[in-house]
Amino acid sequence: MTEEMICGIEIHQQLDTKKLFCSCETRLLEEEGATLHRRLRPTQSEMGEVDRAALVQAERRMRFRYQAPRSVSCLVDADEEPPHDADEDAMDITLTLATLMHAQVVDEVHFMRKIVIDGSNTAGFQRTALVAVDGSIEVNGKRIVIQSICLEEDAARKVETKGSEVTYRLDRLGIPLIEIATGPDMRTPEEVREVAARIGSMLRATKRVKRGIGTIREDLNISIPGGARVEIKGVQELRLLPLYVEREIERQRSLLTIQHMLDERGTRPAATKVVDLTTALKDCKSKVVVAALSKGGKVVGVALPGFEGVMKSTDGKLRLGAEMAQHAKTRGVQGIFHSDELPAYGVTDADVKAVRAALGLDEGKAFALCADDAGRAEAAIRVAVERANQAIIGVPEETRDPLPDGGTIYSRPLPGASRMYPETDVKPIPIHASRLKEIHSRLPEMPEQTVVRFVARYGVHQQQASQIVRDGYEEVFEAISSELGLAAVAARTLLSTLPELEKDGVNVATLSDDRLKEAFQELHSGAFVKEAMPAVLRKMAEGASAKDAVRSLGLQKVDADEAGSIIASIVKEKESLVREKGLGAQGPLMAPVMERLRGKVDGKTASELLRKEITKLLESE
């Protein structure tokens, strides 16, 4: 399945500095602050062209509301003041990474404006600059090309969408991002994950990048023979990268199957003749239809002869209808109905016959319909037809957004070069040889060097050390190991306990490095024993502090005398078993002992105390 795929990735990593074009702090807050409003429109590039993705976004006619918390946003973020000089720390970090990746740094850095009118930038564009090109990294013995390394500003943070208004918060806008683009060098889903992990470890090696969910995002550019380049934008979980690749391969293959079927049938592009079906469906009991008509809306439909069975096949593998619905939703509707899924959803067989009659279609011929406000419904059904007609040609190039289950949803067409034009408010930055020499003199430790040091200094196995670095735990592991001397427990917790908790449905993303260190501080102080760490972390993932978790779970560590007393009482209760089996009773008795003492005394100590009490009882005969 995967040998024929081609994939390149773009990684966007937030830097731990001030904002790129002002001196604001780079923290995310839950306060709204002052508000401002914008409407954004597409502009021409320096070549006089308008980007196709910007045109599609403009057709949605959205309004944008911005929350501007005072401590983390300013007039630069609001586009009411020109940008300041680009942050020197952010540039140095970018140059450091370029050096680590053997890339050729440009002589002079020029910022460009990239048109973005989805509201995520108050100015209607994002500032980005090319810093280096033609680099490479090695992953599992294979050379992966680094096409470009850019420095750009992050977008505003979306808070909510209500109808045609989107609310953003400006705390994230302007945070410096390094953008690293690889060549189309990956051939398997797992290789995609390995390359992303390697780049992530090199970014963390600088010790100047932000950590946590949302601070690093991957864009995947995937194609298969006969398909097209599709960008999956904004994947945040490394472990899900192979799944997104596999699902996109399946999707493109399905679309190629549909194209072949339509070609064999001689299917011609459907006309975008929209027919008012309100009268035909006036008695329809579908909740969607009833809701639309009760608000003065309409039901409109289009004939799709030749598309029967490809909008949703009986085995569910062909789903052109889902693609059509995703495009329709960009016009503000909830979705569409199509003939391959009807009768259903309150639309009866009689309703289907009435629709076919109104559209002049023979029995079994395909159609699609939409119920909503008249303007929205007509716009939605037109783009749905356009998407259906694209299936005759093949797989369209587009940008898709990731879903939590590994699937994706249509976002917009792929942008082109016409969205870029020069930034005239930020002066060029010459990169002198002396600056690069200084950067080279203080390069950070590379990930493979960190692995060797962890093995030598903390006594962990090389495989453990490699996984710690690959999974991004090197900083918290080193802090726990060097400050508390708990390397073995830290390695086991990070590499085994956390994955097991996640598999059980625990939201381990809430356990930041600081919270993990908090748990280990309590362990080091003797508040509980290492066997209780999974229970403590499970409770902390629910929001409890480490101290509260230990208290609520009743895990306060007991001393040897108290533990011995509890074990002695268990041995006394099971005296007949002890006298029958002798020291062989130790195995059966460990279960009730640990049930009483789990989390309060370590297993080794409990075993030694149990053996001591059994021996004492036997010697008393």
How does this model look, in words?
The protein has 20 helices and 21 strands. Strand 9 and strand 10 (165-169) form a beta hairpin. Helix content is 40%, strand content 19%. Strands 1, 4, 6, 7, 8, 11, 12, 13, 18, 19 and 20 form an 11-stranded mixed β-sheet that branches. The protein folds into 4 domains: 10-222, no CATH class; 265-412, Gyrase A, domain 2; 447-514 and 523-531, no CATH class; 560-619. The protein is an alpha+beta fold. The model has no long low-confidence stretch (mean pLDDT 91).
Shape: globular
Please estimate the helix content. Answer: 25-40%
Number of helical segments with 4 or more residues:
20
Head-to-tail CA distance between termini:
71 Å
Structural class: alpha+beta
Largest sheet data: 11 strands, mixed
Q: How big is the Rg?
A: 31 Å
As for the number of domains, it is 4
Q: How much strand content do the residues show?
A: 15-25%
What is the total tally of β strands? 21
Mean pLDDT: 91
Parts with pLDDT < 50 across at least 5 consecutive residues: none
